[in-house]
């Protein structure tokens, strides 16, 4: 199989159309216009193909002729398998297509297996394909092109034989630059993708906000329709509200169950009666404003919070917007052992720029506890019977489990947040009030004073570090303190330095001892959840607080009030 052949200068001499035109062209008549000879391109193509076939033998491969729709004859197409004469493995395939007017026009050339060569070699071959046809235009050029490419392949073979086929510094630089360009392009595309994703996310958020606003307006309209459906005379109720001093209106209307468990919608409350007063907070009892045909309006608890804008007005107003979102979440909580949060209102002063009128008010309307709080009960009776303690703790743990399952952390659990209710059958059950104060500015943590013990060991260990927020596990710890206060009195945190001190001093029953160990595990990661505590033995068997045989009993412990002279 021939590889590299010497150039045959007379390869196209015999039988060449050019030679025939030279020998047989008639002499032009001096009296006739010159006649241009017709070029037989087809014959030129076939002659060149036959010459190349004879030179390259098996390395010449004819390709199926391709004919366009308007062509009368197809273009000549073939492949030349070009190899280095000293190393046939170094090869390349030259695909040639001769147009109808070749050699007066450039041939269509393409290369195969070019990627198997080094960048420098590829550059030299591409330079031949690009520049050489310009120099040879008008003559048969395929053999010249093939010969030049074989010279390059032979150089590669010689260098490889001498172990010199290593990348030069220039080639390495070219490769590094190409890689850098590719990396930059990938990074640019990635940055563009991130920008497009960010833009899409921004559009999605804006669309979601728009949909939320539309949904709120739709819900408000539905609520107003329900108000009319429930038999509320809106105009009459509003007239009553306007004639009631101190009435507070809500928009949209609020809906709750009345004393007969029937739905009741109202727009305002009135008849404020002060229950409790503290700095920046007042608690009242109120009743919904209803028309005369709804005389059985239940009693509600209204908490009124006052806030001053202060110097940083923008920051304060941003906090107030955040408060509204938090209260909306708490308003949706519905559980048999969580106090119903009926609704709220944020009142902004009309003349906020006036220094005499820059006080904002937040009104929170809640279900009224007809039997008071657990804190008030313990102040009166000291402790509760173990059977009632067991039932109430299960109810509180179920409420706390629901609270946590809703994605919320209470952060302010104490006996003042537990309220007692009497049902229609005469039984008493407890409800946990949501941490409304904890959602307000300048109130988070203020109410922990009700359970703030004399000793720091009563605090969850993880909260001793500064700026550590409450967690679901600190809620569990605080619930354990409520259990001890129900069993041993409100002053248990004053009489004992820690839960461990109480367990070491008193002869507690094994079931209670095990339960307290779980409530007060120092490591919050090992402290169980409210759900995990419910199957505890203490809640499932009839076991006392104090082990049998002990001379003391929890019910005989003196309370803080009993010790007061």
From the structure above, extract its key features.
565 residues; UBQ-conjugating_enzyme/RWD; Ubiquitin Conjugating Enzyme; alpha+beta; Transferase(Phosphotransferase), domain 1; nucleotide-binding; 12 strands; transferase; disordered N terminus
Determine the CATH superfamily of the domain at 370-565. Transferase(Phosphotransferase) domain 1
Helix share of residues?
Answer: 40-55%
Can you count the helices?
16
Q: What low-confidence regions span 5 or more consecutive residues with pLDDT below 50?
A: 1-25, 229-235, 551-565
How can the largest sheet be summarized? Answer: 6 strands, antiparallel
Q: What characteristic shape results from the CA principal axes? A: elongated
| Derived structural class | alpha+beta
Mean pLDDT: 80
What Rg is obtained from the alpha carbons, in whole angstroms? 47 Å
Give the class-level CATH name of the domain at 370-565: Mainly Alpha
Write the CATH fold name of the domain at 370-565: Transferase(Phosphotransferase), domain 1
Total count of strands: 12
């Amino acid at each position: 199989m021939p590889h590299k052949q010497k150039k045959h200068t007379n390869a196209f001499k015999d039988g060449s159309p050019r030679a025939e035109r030279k020998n047989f062209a008639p002499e032009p008549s001096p009296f006739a216009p010159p006649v241009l000879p017709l070029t037989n391109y087809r014959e030129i193509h076939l002659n060149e193909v036959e010459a190349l076939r004879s030179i390259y033998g098996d390395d010449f491969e004819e390709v199926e002729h391709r004919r366009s729709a308007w062509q009368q004859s197809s273009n000549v197409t073939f492949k030349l398998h070009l190899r280095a004469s000293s190393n046939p493995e170094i090869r390349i395939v030259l695909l040639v297509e001769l147009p109808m007017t070749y050699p007066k026009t450039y041939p269509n050339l393409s290369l195969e297996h070019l990627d198997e060569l080094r960048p420098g070699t590829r550059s030299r071959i591409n330079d031949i394909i690009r520049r050489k046809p310009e120099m040879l235009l008008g003559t048969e050029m395929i053999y010249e092109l093939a010969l030049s490419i074989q010279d390059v392949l032979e150089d590669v073979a010689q260098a490889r034989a001498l172990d010199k086929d290593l990348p030069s510094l220039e080639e390495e630089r070219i490769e590094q630059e190409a890689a850098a360009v590719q990396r930059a392009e990938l990074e640019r595309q990635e940055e563009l993708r991130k920008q497009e994703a960010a833009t899409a996310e921004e559009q999605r958020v804006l669309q979601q906000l728009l949909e939320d606003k539309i949904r709120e307006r739709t819900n408000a309209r539905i609520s107003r329709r329900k108000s009319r459906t429930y038999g509320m005379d809106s105009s009459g109720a509003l007239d009553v509200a306007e004639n009631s001093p101190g009435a507070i209106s809500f928009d949209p209307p609020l809906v709750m169950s009345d004393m007969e468990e029937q739905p009741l919608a109202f727009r305002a409350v009135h008849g404020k009666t002060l229950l409790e007063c503290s700095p920046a907070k007042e608690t009242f009892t109120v009743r919904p404003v209803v028309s005369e045909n709804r005389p059985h309006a239940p009693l509600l608890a209204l908490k009124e919070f006052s806030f001053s804008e202060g110097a940083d007005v923008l920051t304060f107003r941003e906090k107030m917007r955040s408060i509204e979102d938090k209260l909306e979440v708490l308003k949706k909580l519905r559980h048999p052992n969580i106090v119903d949060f009926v609704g709220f209102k944020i009142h902004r002063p009309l003349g906020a720029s006036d220094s005499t009128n820059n006080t904002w008010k937040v009104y929170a309307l809640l279900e009224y506890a007809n039997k008071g709080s657990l804190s008030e009960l313990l102040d009166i009776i000291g402790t509760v019977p173990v059977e009632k303690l067991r039932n109430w703790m299960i109810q509180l743990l179920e409420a706390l489990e629901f609270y946590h399952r809703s994605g919320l952390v209470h952060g302010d659990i104490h006996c003042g947040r537990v309220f007692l209710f009497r049902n229609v059958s005469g039984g008493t059950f407890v409800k946990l009030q949501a941490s409304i104060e904890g959602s307000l500015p300048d109130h988070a943590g203020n109410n922990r004073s009700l359970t703030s013990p004399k000793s720091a060991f009563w605090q969850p260990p993880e909260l001793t570090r500064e700026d550590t927020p409450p967690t679901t596990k600190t809620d569990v710890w605080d619930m354990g303190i409520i259990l001890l206060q129900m069993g041993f009195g409100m002053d248990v945190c004053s009489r004992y330095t820690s839960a461990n001190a109480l367990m070491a001093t008193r002869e507690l029953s094994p079931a209670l001892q095990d339960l307290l160990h779980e409530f007060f595990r120092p490591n919050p990661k090992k402290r169980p959840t409210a759900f995990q505590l419910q199957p505890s033995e203490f809640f499932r068997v009839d076991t006392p607080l104090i082990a049998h045989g002990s001379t003391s009993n929890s019910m005989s412990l003196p309370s803080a009030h009993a010790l007061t002279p």
